[in-house]
Amino acid sequence: MAGGLRQWARVIKRDVHALHLAGRDPRVPWCTKALALLVAAYALSPIDLIPDFIPVLGYLDDVILVPLGILAVVRLIPPGIMAEHRELAAAALERPVSHVAAVAIVCLWIASAALVVWLVWR
């Protein structure tokens, strides 16, 4: 069961990225673009309709609203275009992630914050 949930989460993640790409495609009608970007923004946003700290209900909107939004928008996007963006999103998910670069960026932000604090303190 855990493997099935993991696979389902990967499909949702891929489709959210594909919707983001479709929302920027000039071949997609503007109203569908707006809806695609809205669904992708809601899926990626830390702000939810129902806050996640509320037991059960907090995650219910993520489990129900996001897949329903994805399904609605996918039906509005022409199948060929959606298949193309799904392939691009899947390829992007398979690219290796550099943890060294992430650590370097975090260190850069910390150093910048320390510099600002030091300059203000002086």
UniProtKB/TrEMBL annotation:
Domain DUF1232 positions: 32-68
Pfam family membership, one: DUF1232
Keyword Transmembrane helix: yes
Record-linked InterPro entries: DUF1232 (IPR010652)
Assigned keywords, A-Z: Membrane, Transmembrane, Transmembrane helix
Gene Ontology cellular-component terms listed: endomembrane system
Compartment(s): Endomembrane system
Transmembrane parts of this sequence: 97-121
Membrane topology of the entry: Multi-pass membrane protein
UniProt protein name: DUF1232 domain-containing protein
Species this protein is from: Chelatococcus daeguensis
